[in-house]
Specification:
By secondary structure, the chain is an alpha/beta fold. It has an eight-stranded parallel β-barrel with strand order 1-2-3-4-5-6-7-8, surrounded by six helices. The longest helix is centred in the last third of the chain and has 24 residues. It starts with 15 loop residues before the first helix and ends in a 23-residue tail after the last helix.
């Protein structure tokens, strides 16, 4: 399905800049993504770093207060950092509001005993080191889905392929969605297409990709894309609020993620970080409100997927 034909949104600063003789070049229709979500929407929203039931309650409360639509919330510390009761509470609260809950599988290389991830080269980064690490990720996936979680966040190609095969064989529910972490996000069209074929249902690309690079990706794949429009500092701290309308035009179907720059790292989370977790959760929702207001001012607020939408549509896969 292609994007609906509609008037282009107003660019920031126009028509004032045009009146001054320094208007931007005309946008080319060939740059626009031809893809949409299966419900016809161009964009959805995600609140990341929701690190437990209390943080989720804050996000849902603040979203209601500020009228911020939320399609998905995600957690970064990992399934292993939550008790069964906490996972069940989060799954129930999210389901009650028709919000997709996505939990991170673990362990990850940066928490493992190997020293290569702390060298200048960063070694294998977030990937799962060895059979036991893959097994831990699978254990997390089985436990989380048994407790009602429908979305799993992964940071390793082998884990992604393994969990995709697991859902094909009924070891986890067939409607489980698999989301690729920003920490290993693909940076070129070929890599993006490979992740899609390995089983990814949405892919978090680095927030420093150019608009032209997003267009390049969309020429080879229609798999949903996730992007921090404000990235945490450990992912670069990029703030791309004024580009949101163009990010949607180029990158649809797109999840807009509201991170926070200049905020402490939260992973792995716990009671020692409680105040920070709750304060940053609240501010992420506020950032969402600011982004939505900006879209409205530019006439670009249309095209949001209906609330409760979560599935990615038909995607290309390798034979299993």
């Amino acid at each position: 399905m292609s994007q609906p034909v509609s008037a282009l949104p107003r660019r920031p600063g126009e028509p004032a800049l045009s009146a001054l003789g320094i208007g931007a070049p005309a946008r080319s229709p060939v740059d626009a993504s031809p893809h949409v979500f299966p419900d016809g929407g161009l964009w959805r929203t995600e609140i990341p770093s929701v690190e437990g039931p209390e943080a989720l309650a804050v996000v849902l409360e603040e979203a209601a207060r500020l009228d911020v639509p939320v399609h998905r919330v995600s957690q970064g510390s990992g399934v292993w950092m939550l008790s069964d009761a906490e996972i069940t509470e989060m799954a129930g609260a999210a389901a009650e509001r028709s919000v997709e809950l996505c939990l991170f599988t673990g362990p990850r290389g940066t928490w493992d005993i190997g020293g290569s991830t702390r060298t200048d080269s960063r070694g294998a980064g977030l990937r799962a080191r060895g059979h036991d690490a893959v097994a831990g990720c699978v254990e997390d996936a089985l436990r989380a889905t048994e407790l009602g979680v429908k979305c799993l966040l992964v940071a390793d190609e082998g884990v992604l392929w393994t969990l995709h095969r697991a859902r094909l064989q009924g070891l986890i529910p067939a409607d489980t969605t698999l989301k690729v972490s920003a920490l290993i996000g693909p940076v070129n069209p070929a890599a993006y297409a490979v992740y899609e074929r390995l089983g990814a249902d949405s892919l978090n690309v680095p927030s420093d990709l150019t608009l032209a690079q997003l267009t390049e990706i969309r020429r080879v794949s229609g798999a949903p894309m996730d992007m921090y429009v404000e990235a945490p500092d450990d992912l670069g701290g990029y703030v791309r609020m004024y580009e949101i309308a163009e990010l949607i035009r180029r990158g649809a179907p797109l999840y807009l993620k509201f991170g926070l720059a200049k905020a402490p790292s939260l992973y792995p989370s716990g009671q020692h970080l409680r105040d920070t977790v709750l304060a940053t959760a609240r501010e992420r929702v506020r950032r969402g409100r600011l982004a939505l207001d900006l879209l409205a001012r530019h006439g670009a607020e249309g095209g949001m997927s209906p609330l409760g939408s979560r599935l990615p549509g038909t995607l290309h896969r390798f034979e299993s």
